[in-house]
Amino acid sequence: MDSENKIIIAIDGYASTGKSTLAKALAKELGYAYIDTGAMYRATTLFFLRHKIKLENDRAIQKALHAINIRFLPASEGNRLILNGEDVEDEIRKMYVSEMVSEVAAISAVRRTMVAQQREMGGEKGVVMDGRDIGTVVFRDAELKIFLTANSEVRTKRRLEELVAKGLEVKEDEVGANLTHRDHIDSTRADSPLKKAKDAIEIDNSYISQEEQLLLALNYAKTKILDFSRG
Questions:
Q1: Residue 148 three-state SS
Q2: Which residues pair with residue 10 across a beta bridge?
Q3: pLDDT below 50 — which residues of the chain?
Q4: Upper half-sphere CA count for residue 134 (Cβ side, 13 Å)
Q5: What is the pLDDT of residues 104-150, one digit of tens each?
């Protein structure tokens, strides 16, 4: 695909709506780069937990942020997140990180640091980026914005199956409570709260397959790419 005709695709939505699954598949179909911004906040959370950074200690947070280096390493099954030289892709998906990630992501200094890195990563376009504020904050001018939703029961089941598949022992009510907690913090935080951009296309994937969702998104993307190439 001609690099001059590439666009930025922003995928936002609540936890466990399948943002990363769609973003990875869409990037693969289009030959675009995929950037998992949620993983960046998870990696930051992991660093804070390991170094016992108190979330009310602004000085410690600033020092920690300067010590964090995040990059993505392409792999056959998708990107792996590398934190200060260590592959932490599996560790950042564990429940103890999930329980803290929304609180860490709500810190303004953390968001400013991550947003700056995300904008740098997407500067050349030809990227699919998923998160909670991509279309509203990180790339307000993204050519295509998609907002994913699904009902709470479906999201809880998906998240539970994902964790069990990784060999983790978790209870359904624990998973559901965690999702509700994250939804509340993500939607009510003062700095760049989760919300649907006015120009975003909403897809409720509660009862459609991943293949059906990908087809929808791919059609939207191809239309936007064609429009963009026409100027």
A1: strand
A2: 129, 145
A3: 1
A4: 31
A5: 999 999 999 999 999 998 888 999 999 999 999 999 999 999 999 99
Name 128's Cβ contacts closer than 8 Å, sequence gap at least 6: 9, 11, 23, 24, 26, 27, 30, 32, 33, 34, 35
CATH number at residue 13: 3.40.50.300
Query: Order of strands across the sheet with 80-83?
Result: 70-73, 80-83, 86-87
209 within a domain of the structure (yes/no): yes
What pLDDT, on the 0 to 100 scale, is given for residue 228? 86
- Domain presence at residue 2: no
Distance CA 82, CA 71 (A): 5
| pLDDT of 7 | 96
pLDDT at res. 4: 66
Collapsing DSSP states into helix, strand and coil, what is residue 231? Answer: coil
Whether 230 contacts 143, CB under 8 Å: no
Count: domains in the chain: 1
Sorted by sequence, the CB contacts under 8 Å of residue 50 that are 6+ apart come out as none
Laid out side by side, the sheet with 127-131 consists of 33-36, 127-131, 8-13, 144-149, 201-204
Domain limits for position 173: 7-225
Tell the residue number behind the tokens 């410690």, with chain if given: 60
pTM to 2 decimal places = 0.86
